[in-house]
Amino acid sequence: MPKIRVVYNREGCIGAAACELAAPKFWKLGKDNKADLAQAKLNPETLKYELEVEVTEEELKALKESADSCPVQVIEISEIS
Ligand code: SF4
Known about the structure:
Blueprint: E1 3-8, H1 18-22, E2 27-29, E3 35-37, E4 41-43, E5 48-54, H2 57-69, E6 75-79
Antiparallel strand pairs: 1-5, 1-6, 2-3, 4-5
Bound molecules: iron/sulfur cluster.
The site of iron/sulfur cluster has 14 residues, from helix 1.
């Protein structure tokens, strides 16, 4: 299973919910109408949320789709192994 790293700039989220539609297992809109990334931790230096996780090929595809469909491009995904 690929291990990936997701970096999410929640500050820039405009609540379009495209990410939630593409990968609902990972993204959910919060009360403030910005998406929350499940189990991600805030990096106090960059103020971005980060998550390293092993995913199935299907989950990876869904996450890449969420990044591609985000209108403000605040989701970055990279494979780390
Ligand atoms: S698609 Fe982008 S802007 Fe829309 S809720 Fe997700 S992170 Fe926020």
